[in-house]
Design a protein that fits this description.
Layout lengths: L10 E2 L10 E2 L10 E4 L12 E4 L11 E7 L2 E9 L8 E10 L1 H5 L11 E12 L5 E15 L18 E21 L2 E29 L2 E31 L4 E20 L13 E22 L4 E12 L6 E13 L4 E12 L9 E3 L5 E3 L8 E14 L2 E20 L22 E21 L2 E15 L5 E3 L6 E13 L3 E12 L3 E2 L5 H7 L12 E2 L3 E14 L2 E10 L7 E6 L15 E5 L4 E9 L1
Antiparallel strand pairs: 1-2, 3-4, 5-6, 5-33, 6-7, 7-8, 8-9, 9-10, 10-11, 11-12, 12-13, 13-14, 14-15, 15-16, 16-17, 17-20, 18-19, 20-21, 21-22, 22-23, 23-24, 23-25, 25-26, 26-29, 27-28, 29-30, 30-33, 31-32
Length: 636
């Protein structure tokens, strides 16, 4: 969330129902300190079971004008900030804009994993008006626009395919988001203050897919490649989610040791989903008439009131307790009357702190899942019933030990957690499907009729060692050991797709002083994560009909991809002058050119010699290889 508001997905090229995307809209130039919660978090946060990222914008400089301009392979960027008046209480502004086209990569012969050119632009602004007696009004906004055309029909090489597209269609895809609002904060007296805000947002995802029929032919000059023999538009969709947001919080200091917070978060959803499809039958080759999968205009609220209490029981112990409630107006099953939260922190010594927290959490589904008209294998349309599924729930507990070291800029932390998931949406028919695996691909999901009878559990151990920047050196090392399992409607305990079982990151850098004003930075990062899971047998008929891989229920998630590994190198040089600074940076991602698997794709009739243990037609698509990115920035 941003500025107290539950914002749309802040990523370019976002997919409906997911929280990610390949390029972020967020920019550290306009962000202040932010909070990231996992395991246990206060009662003011709701409609989430995995984590919370609470973002705040910073105010612009109200004393002098400043700016930053940047030119690089990933885009051209400009930031400006400064006062809108005179005096210590003058209003201020902050504005950032970025425009990017990756056409320069093609001219430099750099492989992006796609011949398509992603185009995107984004920006943000904030205008702050200080008020009397410590109050403040801020108007803010953020937007992102992105488009890409993935044209398989222009590909003439039979040896490879677009990593980010499907192998049987041209795709025209785009996503837009905007959110803007006004926030107000004011101290009522020495012990009480309030915060409130209203905002509006929109998120649009649009796509047109054209089905291709191809054969290998002679392109002339002894060259052979794919020839398009026929094409027909098979899918058009536009998903639009407009929302109105509001929040209010009341904060009261009850004594020198205790505080009370109460408030409410409200979102009004206004949804418009339009989707028409001609579902190509890969078995018979028949392309039937158009039919609508979505034709939805709907409105409903999300309401989350909460109250939280925090007390210092003594000089070493801090206790936090709270309760929230969640109501989604989509149906009468999406209501969680009480979600209790509790936390305890014990400062055992000046350097050692122990902490623990627990809570009950609930979350609604991606809104589009409530409304689609699904199709059985016999192509009989069946209206999906939005009243069948309710909230997914989680009971979780986490605890750990954090230590600082006297005289050293070092911090270490160890944390253990356990999460039990229940009321997870799974299919009514017996299958391996579960919503805990959603978000692992690049498209929407198409489950059969759902019900809240699935379960799952996650547990693990996380370790962190951090050296804060001092003496020109910093590092951060994190390690995680975990296990994630679930049960679908068939009752079989399986690995989740994301059950890599381990993750490790090491980030370090050294800054060298070259004279009184210049700095050279050398840094690196190494990451390795256990591979994702998939099935050991492909359902050939279902895969042919869908045009994408569908595994059999039996043996689902019993085969693991090899581990992800990446080594990055960063070089930087900075020149400092009075009122001006220049910086040149070079980031080389995947220095060793490791072939990390992005996804598995299906190519009919392809004999994949690289992975002979997988059914014919399945091939690996890889993430970016060695990938250099440079930038030149001027701060003034």
């Amino acid at each position: 969330r941003m500025e107290g508001i539950n914002i749309p997905n802040p990523n370019h090229f976002s997919i409906p129902g997911t929280g990610g995307g390949p390029v972020t809209i967020l920019n550290n130039k306009f962000l202040a300190n932010s909070d990231f919660f996992t395991g246990a978090w206060p009662a003011e946060y709701g409609n989430a079971i995995a984590g919370v990222f609470d973002l705040q914008m910073r105010d612009g400089n109200n004393q002098k004008f400043e700016g930053s301009a940047q030119l690089g392979l990933l885009g051209t960027e400009l930031m400006l900030e400064g006062p809108l008046g005179k005096g210590a209480k003058a209003p201020s502004f902050l504005a950032v804009y970025r425009y990017s086209t990756l056409s320069l990569f093609q001219s430099l012969n750099i492989n992006l994993g796609t011949n398509a050119i992603p185009r995107y632009q984004d920006g943000a602004f904030r205008v702050t008006f200080p008020q009397k007696n410590g109050g403040k009004i801020a108007a803010w906004g953020m937007f992102g626009v992105s488009d890409i055309d993935i044209l398989i029909s222009e590909q003439t090489d039979t040896s490879g395919f677009e990593s980010y597209g499907s192998t049987d269609r041209d795709q025209y895809f785009g996503s837009d988001m905007f959110v803007g609002g006004i926030n107000y904060s004011k101290p009522i007296n020495k012990t009480t203050y309030i915060k409130a805000g209203v905002a509006a947002s929109t998120a649009v995802i649009r796509a047109v897919n054209t089905k291709l029929q191809r054969e290998i032919g002679d392109l002339g000059g002894g060259q052979f490649g794919w020839i398009v023999t026929a094409n027909d538009t098979m899918l058009n969709y536009t998903f639009k989610e407009n929302k109105i947001h509001g929040f209010f919080s009341y904060n009261k200091k009850l004594s020198t040791r205790s505080t009370l917070q109460a408030g409410i978060n409200v979102d009004l959803y206004m949804l418009n989903y339009q989707d028409s499809v001609r579902q190509f039958d890969g078995v018979t080759g028949i392309l039937p008439p158009w039919r609508k999968q979505w034709n939805t205009q709907a409105q409903w609220p999300v309401v989350q009131p909460y109250v939280s209490y925090k007390s210092r029981l003594n000089e070493k112990t801090t206790f936090t307790a709270g309760v929230t409630s969640l109501y989604l107006g989509v149906n009468d099953k999406s209501f969680m009357p009480l979600e209790p939260r509790v936390g305890l922190s014990y400062q055992a010594t000046a350097t050692d702190r122990f902490f623990a927290g627990s809570g009950l959490h609930a979350q609604g589904q991606a809104p589009y899942l409530y409304y689609y008209a699904m199709t059985t294998q016999n192509f009989d349309p069946l209206e999906h019933n939005p009243d069948r599924i309710g909230l997914m729930k989680s009971a979780q507990v986490a605890g750990g030990w954090e230590r600082t070291y006297k005289g050293l800029p070092v911090r270490t932390k160890i944390e253990a957690y356990y999460q039990y998931l229940y009321d997870v949406p799974v299919e009514v028919r017996s299958s391996a499907f579960s919503m805990v695996n959603a978000g692992s691909g690049f498209g929407r999901i198409w489950p059969d009729t759902l019900q809240n009878t699935g379960t799952g559990r996650n547990y693990g151990l996380e370790l962190t060692a951090e050296r804060f920047f001092a003496g020109g050196v910093y590092f951060l090392a994190t390690g995680s050991l975990f296990d994630a399992k679930y049960r679908g409607s068939d009752g079989v305990l399986r690995n989740t797709i994301f059950n890599g079982r381990y993750a490790f990151n090491l980030l370090a850098a050294k800054e060298f002083k070259l004279g009184p004003n210049n700095r050279f930075t050398l840094g690196g990062k190494f990451t390795t994560v256990g591979g994702r899971w998939f099935g050991d047998k492909v359902n050939q008929n279902a895969t042919l009909r869908a045009g994408e891989i569908i595994f059999e229920n039996e043996g689902f998630n019993t085969v693991q991809n090899r581990a992800y590994q990446r080594l990055d190198l960063k070089l930087g040089y900075k020149w400092n002058y009075p009122n001006l600074a220049w910086e040149f940076g070079l980031d080389i991602s995947n220095l060793t050119g490791a072939k990390n698997i992005l996804t598995l794709t299906y190519v009919p009739g392809l004999d994949n010699v690289d992975t002979p243990d997988i059914d014919e037609g399945i091939r690996e698509e890889y993430q970016l290889g060695l990938f250099p990115v440079f930038y030149l920035r001027c701060d003034f």
